[in-house]
Design brief:
With 134 residues, the protein is of the alpha+beta class. Helix content is 22%, strand content 38%. It has a single domain, classed as Roll (Pnp Oxidase, Chain A), CATH 2.30.110. The protein contains three helices and seven strands. Bound molecules: flavin mononucleotide.
Length: 134
Amino acid sequence: MVKLSEEMKTAFSKVKIFPVATASKEGVPNVVPIGFCQLVDDETIWIADNFMVKSLANLEENPIVAIYVWGPETGGCYQIKGKATIIRSGEKFDKMKAIVNAAKPGLPAKTLIEVMISDVFQCAPGPAAGTKLL
Ligand SMILES: Cc1cc2nc3c(=O)[nH]c(=O)nc-3n(C[C@H](O)[C@H](O)[C@H](O)COP(=O)(O)O)c2cc1C
């Protein structure tokens, strides 16, 4: 697993809606916009599943997730890959549910997707685009 740099964490904090990509075990890709996507430490992302259907089905058979971090205020662009664990109960799940319901009461917060970051790539345009940073 890898730890995000301060620059990467700052960029992450500026994004409001994250594109979250998954794939089926046959390799069919699926990408969705996700608002509840937060860093819990330098190497872990929590995604709150409120409405996932294909994304969750994909993660049940293929845990690899890809996200890119970009927005008008990020000052850079990073592509993050990681391995997801699906969490449906326990302390972490309860914490995620409390965060979601404090922000938007009534949302189902049905599953916590915990992503351990495994790779970070340069995603900004230029000669270094696509290179592995972490
Ligand atoms: C702006 C925006 C933010 C969203 N945020 C979330 C979210 O935080 N959690 C979630 O489960 N779905 C969220 N959705 C819904 C998903 O993008 C998507 O509709 C859902 O995962 C079903 O698609 P799927 O079958 O491909 O998984 C959001 C949609 C939009 C447009």
